[in-house]
Amino acid sequence: MSQGKKASLELRNLIVKLKGEKKSYSEIVKIVRKPRSTVQTIYRNYVMHGNMLNKSRCGHPHKLSDRDARAIVRKVKKNPKISAPKLADQIATANGKKVHPETVRRILRSGGYNGRVSSRKLFISSVNQQKRLHFASPHSPDLNPIEHLWEEVDRRVRQQATSSKETLRKAIKLAWAQISPETTRNLVMSMPNRMQVVIPSKEGPTKY
Question: Where would I find the Transposase Tc1-like domain in this sequence (predicted)?
């Protein structure tokens, strides 16, 4: 595109909009009726600089070529977890081109990557998994009857009006005294069933 025939802002906006709609260069050329080279140049300028302004040719050339952009996309395909700052550092090391991470992000967005990084999961070895299970089971609220007794106490206390520490203390003592031996016996007798549910769940959520 010659310097004397710079594209209008409306045309540049339209090209970027169509590319954002996943239109191919061939489709865009037919719509805007401009040479393919013009369309590619306009979109490349947008990707590299993040705006619709025409860039003067008397200044520095684009830091990243189309080849560089394709290389960035390939790197992300191989390693989806790599960050934009890390990619910028790799470009600087390989090509001596200092590039802002935001430029890298724009290139990735133009290639269909929205910048989301796969969530990291904490690695737990098989040995540590067993240690966690050995620790968790004795401390599991599903296998601890007192947890259910405290839940019952809490439910009963909430049914009473407590306006001070003293009234709260009395309400707790009363609720505890009202727990029948049958309630505690039923909790103890439920332990075999609880174990049958908790052990296969590997400390996951259960009905208890």
Answer: 70-139
